[in-house]
Design a protein that fits this description.
- It contains 6 helices and 7 strands.
- The protein is of the alpha+beta class.
- Helix 2 runs antiparallel to helix 3, helix 3 runs antiparallel to helix 4 and helix 3 packs parallel to helix 5.
- The longest helix has 32 residues.
- The C terminus is likely disordered.
């Protein structure tokens, strides 16, 4: 199956987002450790405020949870605005709603305690809510918003800079896709890779994205395929991508009779630039 195409900057951004999403799945494996650290910090802070400083329980909860909750809210709003501006709103609507739900969920224990603390503990001092309690957290709101905006802008500029500095991304290409693998060529280079050389793939809105590693990818516009049958054939060929790619060469045991090291195993795949 032979296709000819030329990638656009929008397609490059889409493929980069698919690659970032794949790496994000790896990072989620550390979420339990981060959560445990936050819980330990929260419990120690509550103990310190109540046992050492003897501060009202609602005051403690509010000032511990408000920075985290407001950070979630600011990040959600910034990402919502940038998504609308870049025309990606339908795809991020659910994620934005989830962030705002987390914002409300985080603050809910503090306000529940505010209304029912005296019922649960009649001896607890009554605390009067004032909006000025939010003023100490304006620093958090400002810096979190500023950092989020700067990060989004920097990522966008980084992608644009890489697109401009790598002419190979913009060249017209020809891809020969078969059961043996993929051969990519343009006016100055040719690259071949078997399916064993990929670690995964993803179908996005307008692309087939093949992951050569956790940091690099090859992507083909769906519009480059002549028909639905060819697109179905592409989906079928991705079954050759190994589910669990080999991470290292197999270890060969020596019989101890030879002083020479055992030969390296033959490579299963080979590529050339």
């Amino acid at each position: 199956m032979l296709i000819q195409y030329q990638n656009t900057f929008e397609q490059y951004v889409e493929a980069s987002e698919a690659l970032a999403a794949r790496r994000a799945k790896k990072r989620r494996a550390n979420a339990q450790a981060y959560t445990a650290v936050m819980v330990i910090f929260f419990l120690l802070a509550v103990w310190f405020y109540q046992s050492v400083l003897h501060v009202n329980q609602f005051f403690v909860l509010f000032h511990l949870l408000a920075p985290l909750a407001l950070s979630f809210a600011v990040v959600a709003m910034v990402l919502c605005v940038t998504s609308v501006m870049s025309g990606r709103w339908p795809r991020v609507g659910l994620r934005t709603a989830m962030r705002l739900a987390i914002f409300l969920l985080i603050l809910s224990p503090a306000f529940v305690m505010y209304h029912y603390l005296n019922v649960i503990n009649p001896r607890a001092p009554r605390f009067i809510w004032r909006w000025t309690m939010l003023l100490p957290h304006t620093t958090w709101v400002f810096f979190v918003g500023w950092i989020t905006i700067a990060t989004v802008k920097s990522q966008r500029n980084k992608q644009k800079k890489l697109w401009e500095e790598l002419p190979s991304l913009r060249r017209s290409k020809t891809a020969d896709i078969s059961a043996a693998g993929i051969a990519l060529s343009d006016t100055v280079s040719r690259t071949e890779m078997s399916w064993d050389g990929f670690v995964g793939w993803q179908e996005t809105k307008s692309l087939f994205v093949l992951f050569a590693s956790e940091h690099t990818s090859v992507f083909f516009p769906k519009a480059a395929f002549a028909s639905d049958e060819e697109r179905e054939a592409m989906r079928a060929l991705t079954r050759f991508i190994p589910v669990s790619p080999a991470r290292a060469f197999p270890v060969l045991q020596s019989d101890g009779n030879s002083s020479q090291p055992p030969p390296l195993p033959a490579l299963k795949t080979a590529g050339k630039e």
